[in-house]
Amino acid sequence: xxxxxxxxxxxxxxxxxxxxxxxxxxxxxxxxxxxxxxxxxxxxxxxxxxxxxxxxxxxxxxxxxxxxxxxxxxxxxxxxxxxxxxxxxxxxxxxxxxxxxxxxxxxxxxxxxxxxxxxxxxxxxxxxxxxxxxxxxxxxxxxxxxxxxxxxxxxxxxxxxxxxxxxxxxxxxxxxxxxxxxxxxxxxxxxxxxxxxxxxxxxxxxxxxxxxxxxxxxxxxxxxxxxxxxxxxxxxxxxxxxxxxxxxxxxxxxxxxxxxxxxxxxxxxxxxxxxxxxxxxxxxxxxxxxxxxxxxxxxxxxxxxxxxxxxxxxxxxxxxxxxxxxxxxxxxxxxxxxxxxxxxxxxxxxxxxxxxxxxxxxxxxxxxxxxxxxxxxxxxxxxxxxxxxxxxxxxxxxxxxxxxxxxxxxxxxxxxxxxxxxxxxxxxxxxxxx
Length: 434
Fold this sequence. Notes:
Layout: H1 2-21, E1 24-26, E2 30-34, E3 39-41, E4 44-46, E5 56-61, E6 68-72, E7 75-76, E8 84-87, E9 97-100, E10 108-115, E11 120-121, E12 127-132, E13 136-138, E14 143-144, E15 148-156, E16 165-168, E17 176-181, E18 185-193, E19 202-209, E20 212-219, E21 222-234, E22 239-240, E23 245-254, E24 258-265, E25 268-274, E26 277-280, E27 289-297, E28 300-303, E29 307-309, E30 311-312, H2 326-361, H3 371-377, E31 382-386, E32 393-399, E33 417-420, E34 426-429, E35 432-433
Parallel strand pairs: 2-12, 14-21, 22-30, 32-35
Antiparallel strand pairs: 1-4, 3-9, 5-6, 5-10, 6-7, 8-9, 10-11, 10-12, 13-15, 15-18, 16-19, 17-18, 19-20, 21-23, 23-26, 24-25, 24-27, 27-28, 27-29, 31-32, 33-34
């Protein structure tokens, strides 16, 4: 009997070693899950004939032999402490495990071990769990305009009986959606012809499961040749010699355009510069004419509509008006008013003088001599008054005749008349006749 007691453990160890050579496990290497969803780990192991009625399942994290236990016989520990875990019938070799409400902290590497009549750690079969917070959109790369593009949105289907539902927020005007389901993932594909109108457009993929929602948004990157190329300028019109003019060229392109400027004079086309802006300093008449820009990138090029710069001859500067003090303006105004009053007074005076002259001319002339004296001497006098130059002037004529009573000699007698005009100036006029 003592000898049998010594041989028994040895025989049991040899039998267990033989069974270990036949141990196997079916376990996925990688699994993915959406944050907050469930994970069903498909798992079977053997040999089942070595399993006893007290067989249990154990999950360890990070290391198969020294790692922390997260699950043992219906009890959770460590990072699985807040997760509801359900395991299959380990006595029948079913190690499938369901985890509900997984989060980022449940991500990691796990190993399965069974204990009981048959104890074994499957240290060469690791399970890696990745927890995602949103669906995955691919490809996230630039696409060229005009090409047929496929945009895929996928999410893990870690709960086969309750997979998420995927949908795109925008169909991009005629794009088609195709849904496919793989063993562990579900995806929806958006098929469309890439256009420049899609560039920088955002599209969203939405995954939903019961009351849970997950979304992912991307911005499309479509490359295309330049379009809508145009020129805007500062002071293109009414340009004078010596002025400064700046022209700017813009276009819609991806990737951005490079710009070249051209000057057209008659039938000649000359390259004037490069860059988005063309500055022209101190322009001359030769700078006038048509200008256009060419926008170009690796997908093509486009010319803008030409603009005309009409350069005019410069004119000499006009001297600024002197500054006049307000008091000076008042004095000048007063002097002008006085001058106007003086002119008005002179005009009225001349009118009165003319009236007096006409009145005097209509009267017979009377001298200081009496009619008797005139008859004695036989004189004939005539007086006329006129107003030359606006002054009263009287002319007198004297006629000396020979009389019978005067026999001795003929005397020449001159009778001078002294007249006064309206200015009281003495004027003497005499006329002598024989």
